[in-house]
Write a structure and sequence with these properties.
Number of helices: 7
CATH class of the largest domain: Alpha Beta
Shape: elongated
CATH architecture of the largest domain: 3-Layer(aba) Sandwich
Helix content: 40-55%
Largest sheet: 5 strands, mixed
Distance between the termini: 56 Å
Number of strands: 7
Number of domains: 2
CATH topology of the largest domain: Glutaredoxin
Structural class: alpha/beta
């Protein structure tokens, strides 16, 4: 920044001293503009993980997911999250969910289902998903233990993870005020003329 300011001062001095002020001004403004654009581009490249981390994590959830059919039959508790890439609350929770996955993935199945993918519509209907993110926690027998809708507190989720091993768990539903309503995605609608 200091060099940029110094360059600016030199430019101003040259303009005052020169006979061809307009030409020097144009050249210096172009140089400053190129320098600023370069700084912005380099900053974005260096800090892209910081700026786009949540979006990247959310997009990677589908690739990191255990298949739901396997998850419900392998005798392990299951974390099932319904999400969408456009969901701001899902993006906010993505780093927390990713940290949980890294911590608990040996003991718990992590299943991530994108509500915009028609492939998961039977699960969306089965678990009455209206707001996202929706997290359903199941014990190792496949019984639904907890349903969380919207942005959740890390402590409450961790407490629920730790309670998955208990024999008796009454179902609890926790709804936060911060959630996204599922949007109809016309790209995924099957018409009689498509082969779905």
């Amino acid at each position: 920044m200091f060099n940029l300011f110094r360059m600016f001062l030199v430019s101003v001095t040259l303009i005052v001293q020169s006979e061809s002020r307009e030409q020097i001004l144009k050249t210096n403004l172009k140089t400053i503009l190129i320098l600023i654009i370069s700084i912005v581009i380099v900053s974005l490249l260096l800090f892209k993980n910081f700026f786009f981390k949540s979006t990247y994590l959310l997009k990677s959830f589908g690739e990191l997911s255990v298949d739901p059919e396997i998850a419900f039959t392998n005798n392990k508790p299951t974390f099932l999250e319904f999400y969408a890439e456009w969901c701001e609350v899902c993006k906010e929770m993505a780093p927390q969910v990713s940290a949980f996955k890294n911590e608990y993935e040996k003991e718990i199945n992590f299943v991530f289902l994108n509500v915009d993918n028609q492939k998961w519509s039977n699960y969306i209907q089965k678990f009455a998903v209206n707001g996202i993110p929706q997290v359903n926690l199941f014990d190792k027998k496949g019984s639904l233990i907890s349903t969380f809708i919207g942005k959740q507190d890390e402590i409450k989720l961790r407490e629920s993870f730790n309670n998955l091993e208990k024999e008796e768990n009454p179902h609890e539903e926790i709804i936060s005020a911060e959630f996204s309503t599922i949007q109809k995605n016309k790209n995924n609608v099957i018409s009689p003329r498509t082969h779905g």
